[in-house]
Amino acid sequence: MRKPSAVSLLDLDVELNEVCDFIMFLFASIPFFVVVSWGRLATWSQDTLALSPDPDFRPHLDDRLALHPDDEPWSHFKPRHTIEYHDCYDGLKCARLLLPLRFAQKGSKEPEIAVALIRKPSRVNITDSRYGGVVIVNPGGPGASGVRFLLENGGRLQQIIDADTDPEVGPPNTRPDARYFDIISFDPRGVNHTSPQFNCFPYTSSRHVWSYMADAEGFIGSSNTSFEQKWSRYLSRSATCMQRVEEEGHDSIAYYMGTRSVADDVVAIAESHGQWREAEARKILKEDPTATQLVGPERAFASTKWRRNNEEVLFWGVSYGAVLGSTVAALNPGRVRRMVLDSTVSPQYHFNGTLGDTLTHADEILAQFLHLCRKYGPTRCKFYRETEDAMHRDMSSVISRLKHAPLAVPASLHRGPDSITWTDMMRLVGQSLYHPASSFPLLAEILQDIFNGNGTSFANHKATKRGLSVEDAQEGLYNLSPKCKLDGPYSPACSRPNEWLEESLLGISCGDGGFGGNMTQDQFRPYYDLVKAQSTANGDIWAEWDMMCAGWTAKTKWKFEGPFQGDTAHPILFVGNRLDPVCPVEDAHRLSSNYTGSVVLTQNTIGHGILSAHSICTDMAIKAYFQTGELPASGATCEVEHEPLEIAYD
Q1: Which residue range or ranges hold the Peptidase S33 tripeptidyl aminopeptidase-like C-terminal domain (predicted)?
Q2: What is residue 641's three-state secondary structure?
Q3: Domain that includes residue 232, residue range
Q4: Which of 93, 102, 233, 624 is the most exposed place for a label (fewest CB within 10 A)?
Q5: What is the DSSP letter of 492?
Q6: Are strands 86-88 and 92-100 parallel, antiparallel or unpaired?
């Protein structure tokens, strides 16, 4: 790790702090709209931080596995080679599990990673015969936080896969065939609370300044010069990241963030859970030999025994998580007991850096916005016109006007002055395609306001997405802390938790895929034209993410590129929406043909991921699959309870 010179950080700390304060206060008033496809990070009360940490553990050691001191509650947990759970987040369990950096070279002197695990406990004791095992979930991204996903969706997932009956109601012999599951998710390598982290900015302040400037430059199609500007900007970040890789050497996490490594982590988590299950069962039965339900202690011991090197995998992966799941299944077909792959993207597109038919449905979903707006009228859709043609005309007018003349918005009491740009609007349109039920009402409201020449609602929306608040700057949160000065730039103490989200995505997608390396602008332009031709609604966002790989030369060293096929121990259930902006259900059908006995269930709606809508039919089909292994009929389709804009979204 590079250390700051005594002159640059210790003698000038007052000046640096004052400069950081001033710069951050200025930028705090600028709304910052970050391109992410998942919701706001869940919060927790101080009561949940009443933990039971190891009294001998120093949580902020300056080493590869250290976390930011404010990364609560994770910085209190000591990483261990076996799962040791701690209470966290009001009723959940958390642990940091040590796993090999390189599974192919495991050894006592080999470097390790500390994976952040979070578990929503089963509603029955693990010694209960109704205990169904552990379902491991991954939300995709790539680079999305599994911890965050479980905090936001754990209750719904458990409601879907668990038996309908309350395990606490009735005598113990009620529904002995019912099954209740633990649900585990995790932050993949380099992501969020898992360490080591891959961070390409020396300080929080430098990251925010770079990000504000990138945002101001607009999408690569926003002007005649934006393509070259963004290419240069992403090259600058990649060059910095590659410097970090060179400094860290062959042990850099950037080489081992790829899909194959994380697939091995999934199997290792299943094995570690089996080891924990056996130890926990012995502990429970020692304290209370009558703690079993329906079976005696001997059978309880047998059912909870760790099946070393043969633990089954129950998995639910979404989007890129389906690439991860199909990799697990191809490498370990005999372990697959249950696997739901939701919103499947073709693995070949991910690893080859090709577009395929990825964005085929995006413009159709935007057309559905206009159709549903007219169908449900002005009480549900503020952009209502009497005909879809009129709505299309006025939406095109709004977008065109913003491209030539951004809309000025004066300041309010809670944000600074702002300017609504073409990039802002295209970003909003593209993101609205992922979760139409929640996004279409907002899109309609903002389109109508901009049509009327009023950008206040959009500016307010952007302000809620910014990465820095005035209060943060006023409180000096971005000053260099004593720990940051001691540990030096790029250390965990110099960045706020999970700021490196884009580096995580790049480490996985650029490391695995065909973009990056020595790719030139002339080589990328035809791909950009292809993306734009496939989707006007989502093409600029998609191409921008791929351009971020420019100059990225740290390719994954532990890689699996197929074949993606197998005769799994139990058939896979593929699910997907009829129209998905980035993962067409046609990809699920193609991949399903490679896995023996698997079927595809289509949810008749629009959006990304089946959780973006509510369908009792889909929920019941997945429940039956986890409860008994029963698959829906080949080619089955499930209706949803409500269309987007049909009812007010809560």
Answers
A1: 538-638
A2: coil
A3: 204-255+480-512+515-548
A4: 624
A5: G
A6: antiparallel
